[in-house]
Amino acid sequence: MHNLAIIGSGPAGYTAGIYASRASLEPVLFEGLESGGQLMLTTDVENYPGFDSGVMGPDLMQIFKKQAEKFGTQIKTETVNKIEKIDGGFKLETGKGSYEFKSVIISSGASAIWLDVKGEKELQGHGVSSCATCDGFFFKEKKVIVVGGGDSAMEEALFLTKFATKVYIVHRRDSFRASKIMQDRVLENEKIEVLWSKEVAEIHGKEAVNSVSLKDTGDGSSSKLTIDGVFVAIGHTPNVVFLDGLVDLDEKGYIKTGFTTDTSTSVPGVFAAGDVADSVYRQAVTAAGTGCQAAIDAERWLEH
Ligand code: NAP
Fold it and tell me: Where in the sequence is the domain holding 201, given as residue range(s)?
C-alpha cells in the first residue's frame, strides 16, 4: 500500500506533489483526462506571482510538473474512475489497473461549462475565455460579450468594464437569475448593454475572435455582432462524479472541507484542494496554496 495518491494535475495537484515528495511520502499523482487543468486553456498568465513578465498557462503547468517530478512524485497518465474505502486505506481504479493508498488528496478541479458552439473550442485562449480575472486585461479598449445571466456573468461583466470600452451581456431569457444587487450594478453601468433573449450560435475569427452570430430565442431571427472577446460564464462543475458519494459535498456540489484541518474532508485520510473544493476564489495561486496545505495535512495524518 502506497502512502499518498494525488488525483488531478492542476496547480493544486502538482503543488501537493512537490510538498509530499519533498516530505518523502513518494506520492503517486494521477493526471486525469484534462492533464494540466484549466490553465491549459489560457494563454498569458500575468497574475501568478513570481512571473513578472507573465507566463503561458501550458508552460506554467509544465514547470509545475517538472518541479513535482524532480522531488520524486510519480506521475501516471491515468484517470481515476473509482475510489473506495478499504481496510487501512483506499482502493483507486483507473482504466489501467487498481492501486491501494493510505491517504488521498483530491484535486480534480472544476470544469467550466461551455456553450458547445462552432468556433468556441478553436478560439479558446484567442479571445474565448471563461475567466475575466485571468484574461480581462487583454481586452483594453476592446469590445467583448459575456454570456450568462447568473452572478458569475454579472461579476465578469462588471470586472471587464475596467478594460473594455463596451461589454455586452448575452442572455438567453428576458430576466437574470443573478442576485438583485449584482443585477442593479450591471444595469446601472453605462458601459454594459444587455442583449436579452439571445443565444450565441457561432463564434467567428481566424487567429482571434472578430464577431459572433446571435440567435433570438423568441422569434428565431439571426444577427451578427462585431466583438473582440467572448467570456462564457454559464457555470462550473466540480469534477466529483468518480467519487460516487465517498465524501460529503456542499449544496453546490463542491467537496466540503474543514472538518479537522483546512483541507480535511468528511472521510479521515481524504483531503481536498483546489477548485474541486472552492466555488469562490478559483485562482491558480489559491489552488496551489491549498495543494500545499493538503500535502502538509496528509503528512501529519499519516504520521499519526
Ligand atoms: P448560475 O447561477 O447557474 O447561472 C448560470 C447562467 O448561465 C444562467 O443565467 C443560465 O441561464 C445561463 N446558462 C446556463 N447554460 C447556458 C447555455 N447553455 N447557454 C446560455 N446560457 C446558459 O451560475 P453562476 O453564475 O456561475 O453562479 C454559480 C453560483 O455561484 C450561484 O449560486 C451564484 O450565486 C454564485 N456566485 C456568487 C457570486 C457573488 O455573490 N459575487 C459570484 C459568482 C457566483 P438561465 O438563467 O436561463 O438558466
Answer: 114-232
In 3D space, the residue among 297, 302, 268, 274 whose CA is nearest the CA of residue 25 turns out to be: 302
3-class DSSP assignment, residue 106: strand
Q: Identify the residue whose C-alpha is closest to ligand 1 atom 34.
A: 151
What is the domain-level CATH number for residue 128? 3.50.50.60
Q: Given ligand 1 and candidates 172, 181, 212, 237, which is best to mutate, with the most ligand atoms within 8 Å of its CB?
A: 172
Tell the residue nearest (CA) to atom 15 of ligand 1. 234
Residue partners of 50: CB distance under 8 A and separation at least 6 = none
Write the pLDDT tens digit of every residue in 51-108. 999 999 999 999 999 999 999 999 999 999 999 999 999 999 999 999 999 999 999 9
Domain boundary among 232, 264, 280: 232
Give the distance (Å) from ligand 1 centre to CA of residue 248. 23
